[in-house]
Amino acid sequence: MNSKAYRLVILSLYVAMALILSYIESLIPLPLPIPGAKIGLPNIITLVSLLTLGWPLTLLVVIARIFLSGFLFGGGFSIVYSLGGGLLSLLVMSLLIHFLKDKISIVLISVFGAISHNLGQVIVAAIVVQTTSLLLYFLFLMLLAIPTGLFIGITARELMRLLNKTTIFAKLNLPQKK
Amino acid sequence: MKKNEIMIIIGLLAVSLIGIAAFYLINASDEPLSVRVTRQGETVAVFPLSQDHTEIFTDAAGSNTLEISGGTAKIVEADCPDYICVKTYPISSPGETIVCLPHKLVVEVITGES
Description:
The complex is a heterodimer of chains A (178) and B (114). In chain A, helix 5 runs antiparallel to helix 6 (135-165). Chain A has 178 residues and is an all-alpha fold. In chain A, 76% of the residues lie in helices and 0% in strands. Chain A has a single domain (3-170), classed as Arp2/3 complex 21 kDa subunit ARPC3 (Orthogonal Bundle), CATH 1.10.1760. Chain A is built from 6 helices and no strands. Helices cover 25% and strands 41% of the residues of chain B. Chain B is an alpha+beta fold and 114 residues long. Chain B has 2 domains: 1-30; 31-111, N-utilization substance G protein NusG, insert domain (mini-chromosome maintenance (MCM) complex, domain 2, Sandwich), CATH 2.60.320.10. The A-B interface holds A 33, 35-36, 75, 77-78, 81, 104-105, 107-108, 111, 115, 125, 128-131, 133-137, 139-140, 142-143, 146, 150 and B 1-2, 5, 8-9, 12-13, 15-17, 19-20, 23, 38, 40-41, 81-82, 84-85, 87-89, 95-97, 99, 101-102, 104-106, 108.
């Protein structure tokens, strides 16, 4: 099969799966006093996509997922915050993979991704409501991001391990280091 | 995962925990506390935390009902799409905040009289 078409199929699959995961996530409210805290399930797809398609295409996956899930489940308003978090998180994870690919595990990348996701959201929120007093809120989110980031990272690592046993990525013609 | 990665994660946990503890310690005070309501950075109202009080804040975006009772403040009602402010736990320590993003409203506990 044409490798460009193949890549498009994989890309669409990622968007579809990320969208389903955001929907599932919206059904599971965390029983915590920290508003806006989420598990970050769609980040499993972001991680897998980063490792298989690279950041430029993953940027498309993330933006498509945020806009689609924002319009479908979140009310248009949540898009701005999700974008702030999603883009900062993607930037941090891409840089970590680019510069430290052989020294850092998916799990740790996921933890940093989770923390930067919260940071991005809090920064956008602070700009929107024009307050500087969200530091405590961010610290609570960061504390929570560590276990959720670990969970997402371990899930993504195991998923990659299973997917690498298949021939799904063989046709992508991308270097398969990890 | 390698040993040094576990150390980094423990380090991150420590940073957030120490940060939270430091935040409460630095902000702790014996002065009377107040509740400040701001909209887009502008102070709308300040109430003493010690007096029970209920007030509805309305603007073009919508309304939030603030209730102060028994030394804690919380948003009991709002017509925003996400209800995040209503789900936030009651606040009572200086520096704690409740944020209503859709209405750009911030409720925070501050030290000092109103």
